[in-house]
Amino acid sequence: MExxxxxxxxxxxxxxxxxxxxxxxxxxxxxHPHAKGHAVVIPKIHAVTIFDLEEKQMQPLMLAVKKTMGLxxxxxxxxxxxxxxxxGAAGGQVVPHLHIHILPRYNGDGGGSIHSIIKNPREKDxxxxxxxxx
Length: 134
Ligand code: AMP
Ligand code: ZN
Fold this sequence. Notes:
binds zinc ion; alpha+beta; HIT family, subunit A; single chain; binds adenosine monophosphate; 3 helices
């Protein structure tokens, strides 16, 4: 998309530190890293959220995530990772082009797990939610 910042990075109009690229996806270092090696993986096709991607576009994207994690593992030897994405404004998404954050984790880095993102005590009735899926 013309004015999408990540599409512009894809077209080389905005500089970035690309660390992985294939036919469908690429990964580059986050400009404001939250960890050493913090990278984002994006589909080349413009999609705001995962719901804008066709099913056949998911597998290449996940493969790119795995390849990028492999490169980070090789170059930086982290002790673990957090991998995920902010989807929608409520989920903290700022850039409206789907991007999967890869956060290398290092022993003693002081960070938390995915569970530390949200802990809403008002909405914990698992039974009520489970009923909606029956
Ligand atoms: P979010 O949409 O909240 O999941 O995060 C967007 C991420 O994109 C942030 O972590 C930004 O630091 C990162 N970002 C924004 N612009 C650039 C850029 N030009 N190059 C690299 N990373 C960027
Ligand atoms: Zn885009």
